[in-house]
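Morning F.,

Quick status update on the modeling queue. The single chain you submitted on Monday has been processed. Sequence for confirmation:
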Amino acid sequence: MDELIKEIKANHEFRKGEGWEQTLLVEDIDVLIQQVEKVPKLEKTCTEYLHSSKYLLQQKEELEREAHTQNAKNKRLEQENQRCKETLKFYANEINYHVFIENGKSNIEHDGGKRARQNLKGEYL
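Structure tokens below.
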């Protein structure tokens, strides 16, 4: 269709240059009318695409914020998990039950569950 419009335009310019009073043929006008009639539908389609694009952009931004929040939460949970593992390693290490420190108690007796309580409260050594 673009080629047909270019041809109509070229013929119009030629006829105008030749001094014709009527530069457009009836067939040319029919083609142009058909093209003009398509404009409202195309405008509506463009408007719908614009609204869809805005909605999708809002959804993308919301998902990015949610992903950021989840990533931060995951990082905190990973850190908490690591601290819990360290506490469990302390209690699981048999040496801590047998090695005595200067006051005559094992590391476990000396600790008295302090590490576990602090870990449960969210306080870490």
